[in-house]
Amino acid sequence: MSLVNPTLAGRIQPKDSVETVLLQKARAGDPKAFEELIKKHEPKIYSLLLSMTKNETEAADLFQETFISAWRNLKSFKERSSFSTWLYRIAVNTLLMKKRKKKLSTVSLDVPIEHNGEEIKRDFAGDWSDNPLASLENKELRDRLNAAIGELPEKYRTVLHLSDVQGLPNEDIRKILGISLPSVKTRLHRARLHVREKLSEYFKRT
Amino acid sequence: MNDFDRIWRMMDKFMDGDMDFDALEKEFDKIFFHTLQKTVELCHDLECCPPPEGLHASLCKAIECTPQCQPKKRKPKPKKKHK
């Protein structure tokens, strides 16, 4: 079974020639080229920041700071990773720095998700995977899914968002977050278990 | 079959000494993986939230009046002195 996001994974291309030209021009100080370059990355970065902050105003502020920081430091971009990975990393670092400054109350990154003593809970919700209501056209389920993701501690939410919503490979997530590959997999697994359990609760009631 | 029927049938089999625990185990594992896979598929269907209108324009204005920094030069590592 493939758990790689099929629609989004296909869109991730190593480099295209238009991007390379825009990058060169932007590096040479052309702001218009940079504005064109970041256009396709804007929804992904905003979506990540919104998922991490759960606050539209804060996400918009961080969005601006991320791209301004990218513009200011573009000449230091060594192309060791893709441009989008570099942008994601700036976004995550900008958010973490702001949190450190503001000392916002956050859920500790080391707090595990509780699963009533065990990770795989054997419930009696049955196999709802074929249920016709198990579709995002079902608004109630969509809300439930978003709420379940929103309930996750930040470190799990970020990995789930990058992997399952944005379709990034684990290797890229490792680079963006500066953590090990096993940590990415563990966080993703726990996040998926939590969300599955919440959806199972929904189907138990319906 | 709803959950109640499901449990009731299992209890029935259990009382009759007819419970196949291996099959039970497989059944639950199957349910677990099917529902986990469906969870991931549902997440794939979520769309990225576009930034609010006007944010791109204000970002462009800010970029146009922000100078770029020169790349940072790395200091060469000091050579170790051999004793």
Characterise the protein shown here.
The complex is a heterodimer of chains A (206) and B (83). Chain A has 206 residues and is mainly alpha-helical. Chain A has helices at 6-9, 17-27, 31-39, 42-53, 56-72, 83-102, 139-151, 154-165, 170-177, 181-205. Chain A folds into two domains: 16-102, Rna Polymerase Sigma Factor, Chain: A; 107-206, Winged helix-like DNA-binding domain superfamily/Winged helix DNA-binding domain (Arc Repressor Mutant, subunit A, Orthogonal Bundle), CATH 1.10.10. Residues 8-14 and 104-116 of chain A have low confidence and may be disordered. Chain A starts with 5 loop residues before the first helix and ends with a helix. Chain A is built from ten helices and no strands. The relative contact order of chain A is 0.13. The longest helix of chain A has 25 residues, at 181-205. In chain A, α4 (42-53) runs antiparallel to α8 and α5 (56-72) packs across α6. By secondary structure, chain B is mainly alpha-helical. Chain B has a domain at 20-47. Chain B has three helices and no strands. Chain B has helices at 3-15, 21-45, 55-64. The radius of gyration of chain B is 31 Å and the shape is elongated.
Kindly summarize this structure in a few lines.
The complex is a heterodimer of chains A (206) and B (83). Chain A has 206 residues and is mainly α. Helix content of chain A is 64%, strand content 0%.
Features:
heterodimer, A: 206 residues, mainly alpha, Rna Polymerase Sigma Factor, Chain: A, Arc Repressor Mutant, subunit A, 2 domains, 10 helices, B: 83 residues, 58% helix, 0% strand
Can you give the mean pLDDT of chain A?
83
Assembly type:
heterodimer
What best-fitting shape of chain A do the alpha-carbon axes yield?
elongated
- Class from secondary-structure proportions of chain B: mainly alpha
Can you identify the CATH class of the largest domain in chain A? Mainly Alpha
Put simply, the count of helices of chain B is 3
Q: Major β-sheet of chain A, in short?
A: none
Helix-strand topology string of chain B: HHH
